[in-house]
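Example complex used in Figure S2.
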Amino acid sequence: QAQLVHSGAELKNPGASVKLSCKASGFTFNTYALHWVRQAPGQGFEWMGGINAGNGDTKSSQKFQGRVTLTRDTSASTAYMELSSMRSEDTALYYCARLTPGRPFDHWGQGIPVTVSS
Amino acid sequence: DIQMTQSPSTLSASVRDRVTITCRASQSIRSWLAWYQQQPGKAPKLLIYEASSLESGVPSRFSGSGSGTEFTLTISSLQPDDFATYYCQQYSSYPYTFGQGTKLEIK
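Predicted assembly (225 residues):
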């Protein structure tokens, strides 16, 4: 069945960048979009952006424009999210989630803990 | 951005109770609303999409209703596994936004 597997936990200094990965299996990668959603400790969810795995088109939240870069490697069935100029407020659990047009997020990765601290 | 407001924030109930959670959108989202369940330490699980469609594999005690700006999630007879946090999410327009969550606790 469909599965999304993340890279491991990250610890970053303020001002650094992080690149997170999301490897897909069990479905045809380039027929879906992969989105990134984060959850700060004890908080709700915040949508960051997504990439059409087929044509590479991206959409991201205005809040992160200029700091977030979304890419994918179709040969590896993997989506990536790079966040730059990180600050303490970026400490969160980061998820990728699969999206089909007209449907919400039906499969999620296990989440990647990212901590920003000096 | 479309604001999503859930109520209540916390709900105490007992096994076999019927409970309802409400979600309001700051503007019409037609039926582009989803409900998720999140257990502690786990990723969210999709329960309901298009306001009232049950995701495959989800028990029929879960149901959703509403359109426009007012939506509800109902659990007809609570089971022990149902004590979790529930979130609504609009996918009518970007940026996709979520409600703040409703924590369903055992009374």
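The radius of gyration of chain A is 13 Å. Chain A touches chain B through 18 residues (CB under 8 Å).
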